[in-house]
Amino acid sequence: MKRSSRMATRVSLAFGGAVSLVLVVVAGCKSQHEYVIPTASRQIFSQRCSVCHGMEGKGDGPAAAALAVKPRNYSDERWQDSVDDLRIRTIIVNGGPSVGLSPLMVANPDLKDKPDVVEGLVGLVRGFRGQ
After folding, report:
1. Both 17 and 36 in a single domain?
2. CATH number at residue 51
3. How far apart are CA 42 and CA 59, in angstroms?
4. pLDDT at 113 over 50
5. Number of separate domains in the chain
6. This prediction's pTM
């Protein structure tokens, strides 16, 4: 095999490997439409989360006006890009202080053993992106 041919093969393999890696990483990310949102998740958001975050996730719920630290606006695309699902799950279950946020973002320890409900809440949060 000629040297130029071997070099072309190496470049092709390296490029192909890089493309494969990108595809694996992208395939591991969910779009907002890929979450299953159980009814329980919708009910919990309505009863617990919307009081501060609002029904549209803009951080403008009825209790928000009285808070010194304003609730997160879930429609903020920059914030959505900056946070991963694990962090959102952690905040939902363990509360704001578990990740250095406000103690007013209370924990929901009753959801610790309900991963489908928590994942649904994450899906709801992700669904507010750009709205």
Report:
1. no
2. 1.10.760
3. 17
4. yes
5. 2
6. 0.75
